[in-house]
Amino acid sequence: MSKIKFDLEIKFGTQYGREEEEAVIKVLRNNAPTSGNECIAFENSYAEYSGVKHARVVNNGTAALFLSMIGIGLRPGDKVLTTPVTWIATAAAPATLGAEVDFVDIDPVTHNLDPNQLEDKLTPGTKAVIPVHLYGQVCEMDEIMALSEKHHFAVVEDASHAIGAEYKGKKAGTFGTTGCFSFHEQKNISTLGEGGIILTNDSAVFERISLYRSHCTRVHGVSTKYCTLDAEKFPEGKKFWWQDFDDCGYNFRMTDIQAAVGIEQLKKVDQLNQRRIDNADYITHALEGVPGLTLPTVKPYNKHVFHLYPVMIDSKEFGMNKEDFIYDLLNKYGIKVGFHYIPLHYSTAFKSRGFKKGQFPNAEKLGDQLVTLPINPRQTEEALEYLVNSIKALRS
Ligand SMILES: Cc1ncc(COP(=O)(O)O)c(C=O)c1O
Known about the structure:
By secondary structure, this protein is α/β, with parallel strands linked by helices.
């Protein structure tokens, strides 16, 4: 049973094979550069896979969100709306750049930002909305994009959970001005534990993102034969280059070893996602009808890629609250479940920005009731059976 328990642990995401090993060795033997040909090749394959013009790799998903904010021209004091049910990075990216972050409550069925509550929250100062494709299911993008056209705000998709997910046949991360992905070790594919990518069809936004990713460095001139540090001294008629910095930027670059692994992971992403979808199907069929459990609802036009498997527990009907569920499943059966997420407006970071309990009732109900069951492409049928039987046994 210990192997099964191990499979069921929160060890989501990463599954590497010989292809990734060989890719690492190849780049290592080529001096393991940063921002080199492997990064460009990974960007090209990700852009092609997603059907967008541009992709830029970065060192993590937080950097992808941060650079997107810079890319859309966010200024201190601008307003940004997002969901309270997300990892703090989504809200921290605009907040650390001086924006005023506010939340829109979630749809109680999909748990995603509720587009029906979005319009009321918009103000003339709303610069951007960040929908998060929570657990791997894309938000209602038709409604969100229609509001964006009407009210002229940028949409920055946080698609960290939704690598390979689709909405009405179109890939997550390709609806808004930018789409941000994380390749953290728990995500559906990974680039050695950390990594991220930004997608966009907007060439001006892409240029800003690319500049700020690497200190806003710009190289001028026509030849690399001579170099001068000072453009003023550029001698007439000679071929020189010089370096300038358009602004103060950042270092959010990815290494080539990570990108080479990303290329191999991307080739497998649909297959890895399919195993998650099949495992989710197994869990859903087995737990259907258990009183007190609300299982995930997948909209018929969505390809949900089950980064996580969310379940709401009604304590009265199930006979146990969320905390006891988590405790007993771990202590009696060795199964570690997650809670994604404690609503952000409960956190010290956002309480100190004036938020209070009671403001977002659907998010708060989720905070009280939701657990995420282990799901990953490695789970065997035996492991899944053990998981669902253990949950059923909690009731007896
Ligand atoms: C919804 C969401 N947004 C953003 C991030 C940030 O990604 P990273 O950890 O790669 O910085 C994460 C990562 O956990 C996430 O789950």
